[in-house]
Write a structure and sequence with these properties.
The chain is mainly alpha-helical. Helix content is 81%, strand content 0%.
């Protein structure tokens, strides 16, 4: 009887699980009220790290042609890459517009039949109709050069990683950091070591697009059946013979996907590479952004999307083809005839697209944007001002007026609770590095924008993912839209945002939401669909409603997929918010852009890029650590 009394008393004394977190949150709130406005580390444009990097650039520029590192190594890389780009561009220009259209149509016919060929011909004709033929050829040459270099380096490294666990373990952290880094972060060091121009643009695009080439190739090699490999070895085949005759043929379709993703990543980067004077369609988009004229940006943005769609459909067709099937003789003849007809026509017409076949859409688009701004002003202004006044400004005030040590302590506690000790220490190290670099205030402003954008992205993405998982019809309607959205380069998303909201912080948030939502929706939908049907049936048999099954069964069991969706949402949002520095987002993104446009501010832009990477690593490690932790244990009921 007494033991029962003691047990019941201890049960009554047990505190609810929310008491400890609430107490810690209260302590942080009291600390903020007590120390608000102290230890805030305000931004200083003349900080020592900024001036040191600027002086380093001046020294490099002065010794570019006499320092051994540049004279015998970096300059040769630049010359080789420049020669590769120039050669590809010369070949494409030499074909003339009919020849290039015919050759691309022929390649598309071989890849996917007459429908893909028709898409390719129509797509490349549209470049001339928009008056962007020359810029499109330059972009195609730059993408081709970057993709070739990415595959020459990435595919062998991916094969090696797929066949060796040790190599895979060494390569994976490097690829993680490369994929976390926002696109802007690649530009500063490349401008420092390779100057500006087409070679630096090709190298920047190559570095950005090489991770999927390595990752997907390694995955393709890993997925090859061990039985097939053992059978080859038992027949006396050498390691090289097994690679050529077993691994590569069986991994062909997945490796075609690696090529496809490499091309898509390269197309996403070529616009941003224009900030270091890379040629192509990016110059029109940057010019439109600087003038806030959507009419200048839209044709170039649409041209990049069309190029991405054409190349994507070609590579997807190759990936889906049966490895044992052969291209029919009729398709080969038709493709060859189309290519030869285009090359023959190029001998009788000018190489450049005729001006009388172009359509100028700049003025109509600008007029349409002006109409939308005038007629939707009340709605867009209300949304923008409401979010800014009641969410962005208070959160920014919180981050920028709190002592740096209090923010660091809060991140440490949250990261430790969510992801464990090692990710928490990594997050703390990133924050301390940001403070030492002199970018604390602008990093906190960027963190504010990222936090609001991620919250909105997850809210929209999770709702759409749940709707798609629960309705096959809704999923069928939504999937083509997601496919198209994921094909578009990041800069394209600035077009509707700039047209609706002008150059403000909210513009970057809106653009980042529509950029990051598609992968979040896909991951949430796949996670919910992968919940075993037997578990759902068991819950339904106990009388659970549809809503109860969702909240108590499907969402908890899809926890890893949802956390991965959060991780991807954070990475993509951070990348887009930094790009938003071009449309009024301010903070680190603006610092990076200013560093490229103003030579005396190069150091600030370079360090801001490093701070952006540190911010991304911090957020990435927290969410990845949460993904690896086990599900919380439920309290036993006795």
């Amino acid at each position: 009887m007494s033991s029962t009394t003691v047990t019941s008393a201890s049960s009554r004394l047990r505190l609810p699980r929310w008491v400890a977190p609430a107490g810690i949150a209260a302590l942080f709130a009291l600390a903020y009220l007590a120390f608000r406005g102290t230890g805030t580390l305000p931004h200083d444009s003349e900080a020592a790290p900024f001036t040191a990097v600027t002086e380093l650039r001046e020294w490099i520029d002065d010794h570019r042609n006499d320092n051994p590192l540049f004279l015998y190594f970096l300059n040769y890389i630049r010359l080789f890459v420049g020669a590769l780009y120039t050669s590809l561009q010369s070949v494409l220009v030499a074909m003339g517009w009919p020849g290039l259209i015919g050759v691309m149509g022929g390649l598309a016919w071989l890849a996917g039949g007459w429908r893909v060929a028709l898409l390719a011909v129509a797509g490349f004709c549209s470049f001339g109709v928009f008056g962007l033929w020359e810029s499109s050829v330059e972009t195609l040459a730059l993408v081709t050069a970057a993709v070739l270099l990415s595959l020459v380096i990435g595919v062998p490294l991916g094969i090696w990683a797929g066949m060796s666990a040790r190599v895979r373990g060494a390569v994976t952290p490097v690829l993680d950091v490369m994929q976390i880094m926002p696109t802007f972060a690649y530009l500063a060091p490349l401008a420092l070591f390779f100057h500006i121009g087409a070679p630096a643009g090709v190298i920047a695009t190559m570095i950005y697009s090489i991770p999927p080439a390595i990752r997907i190739t390694a995955l393709a090699i890993e997925q090859v059946s061990p039985t097939a490999v053992e059978a080859s070895a038992s027949l006396g085949a050498t390691r090289a013979q097994t690679l050529v005759k077993v691994y590569l043929p069986l991994a062909r379709s997945t490796m075609a996907l690696a090529v496809n993703q490499t091309i898509m990543m390269a197309l996403s980067m070529v616009v941003i590479a224009n900030l270091i004077s890379a040629p192509g369609l990016g110059s029109d988009i940057i010019r439109g952004l600087s003038r806030a004229q959507v009419g200048i940006m839209l044709p170039a943005g649409v041209a990049i999307v069309i190029m991405a769609v054409v190349l994507d459909r070609m590579m997807v067709s190759v990936a889906r083809r049966d490895p044992h099937s052969r291209i029919g003789r009729g398709n080969v003849v038709a493709a060859g005839a189309l290519a030869l007809a285009g090359l023959a026509a190029a001998a009788f017409v000018p190489r450049q697209w005729p001006e009388n076949l172009t359509v100028n859409v700049t003025r109509p688009v600008n007029e349409a944007v002006l109409w939308a701004e005038t007629n939707w002003y009340a709605v867009t202004t209300f949304v923008k001002d409401t979010v800014t006044s009641y969410l962005l400004n208070p959160l920014e005030t919180l981050f920028t007026t709190a002592p740096w040590w209090l923010v660091a302590a809060a991140v440490l506690v949250v990261a430790w609770r969510v992801s464990g000790a090692r990710p928490a220490l990594t997050a703390l190290a990133c924050l301390l590095a940001i403070a030492l670099l002199g970018t604390w205030e602008h990093s906190m402003r960027t963190l504010t924008t990222v936090a609001v954008a991620v919250a909105a992205t997850l809210a929209v993405g999770v709702l759409l993912g749940i709707a798609a998982a629960r309705s096959a019809r809704f999923s069928a309607v939504q999937r083509p839209l997601l496919d198209a959205a994921q094909t578009m380069p990041a800069f394209v998303y600035l077009l509707p945002a700039l047209a609706l909201f002008g150059t403000t912080r909210f513009t970057a948030i809106f653009a980042s939401i529509i950029y990051a939502v598609p992968p979040v929706v896909r991951l949430v939908e796949d996670g919910l669909r992968n919940v075993p049907a037997s578990v759902i049936e068991a819950a339904a048999s106990t009388g659970s409603t549809s809503g109860q099954i969702l909240w108590k069964v499907q969402l908890p069991m899809a926890r890893r997929a949802i956390l991965l969706a959060a991780n991807q949402g954070i990475v993509l949002t951070l990348a887009m918010v930094v790009v938003g520095g071009l449309v009024g987002a301010g903070a680190l993104g603006y610092d990076v852009v200013l560093g490229f446009s103003q030579r005396p501010d190069f150091g600030m832009g370079f360090v801001a890029g490093v701070a952006t990477v540190l911010l991304g690593v911090m957020l990435d490690r927290i969410t990845q650590g949460a993904d690896r932790r086990s599900l919380p244990r439920k309290r036993k009921v006795t």
